[in-house]
Amino acid sequence: MERTARGLLAPALLLLIFSAPVLAQDETFTIPAGTTLDVRLTTTLSTQATQNGDPWTGIVLEPIFAKGREIVPANSTVEGRVTYLKEPGRAKGVGEMRLVAETITTTDGTHWSIVAGLEDAKGAEGAKVTGQEGTVKGPGKSAKDAAVKAGVGAGAGAAVGGIAGGGTGALYGMGIGAAAGLIHSVFKRHKDLLLPQGTELTFVISRDTTAKKVTKAEASASK
User: Fold this and answer.
1) Which of 6, 20, 74, 187 has the largest CB neighbor count within 10 A?
2) What would the DSSP string read from start to end of 102-120?
3) Quick one: how far is CA 111 from the chain centroid?
4) What pTM was estimated for this model as a whole?
């Protein structure tokens, strides 16, 4: 009787084991330090409207691979902050801004906390990235605009001088008008730094970052 019970129990246990859902092992992936992260801004930032500490968002342009698999697909969401901002000055000093990337969230729900510094910015007029901390500097004053203002000032001065004192007055008026135009240009404020939506930013991840790859089953269960 006991032998018969054992004989019936063994197949039942096997059936239970093989019919139970197979639990997937946790898969962890590491984004190594030095990995390039290409991002397209979905937020507009400027030294006129943005404040220090403001958040920004973007999407991943190029996927990242590890262990032969795509772990960060294109169109994953990137979030970060503005950590430094300086408005442009008048006589000197262009607008400056420093951005850091902090998180990546993939389309399947995997979340990465990253430390990444800015290396390049494309698509923003006159902007360039300088220094080890990745500071974006805005455009300075236009030399062409300064020349135009000086020329306009000289022309207006010559006209007034000509009316007042003939040929000699025109020459004096031209010089005074040109000087006034140049002085106006010197004390005119530099252009604001503007990073519009669509600006392409290149970050470099500065330290290894590990996250668990979220499976489709886990992603569905979390909804």
Assistant:
1) 74
2) EEEE-TTS-EEEEEEEEEE
3) 19
4) 0.66
- Number of neighbours of residue 150 by Cβ within 10 angstroms: 19
The number of residues in the chain equals 223
Where in the chain does DSSP place strands (E)?
28-31, 36-41, 45-46, 55-60, 64-66, 69-72, 77-86, 96-105, 111-122, 128-130, 135-137, 194-195, 200-205, 209-212
Taking alpha carbons only, the member of 67, 54, 68, 65 closest to residue 106 is: 65
pLDDT in tens, 113-160: 999 999 999 999 899 999 988 999 998 764 444 344 434 444 544 444
Q: Is the CB of residue 115 less than 8 Å from the CB of residue 99?
A: no
102-113 burial code (b ≥16 CB/10 A, e <16): eebebeeebebe
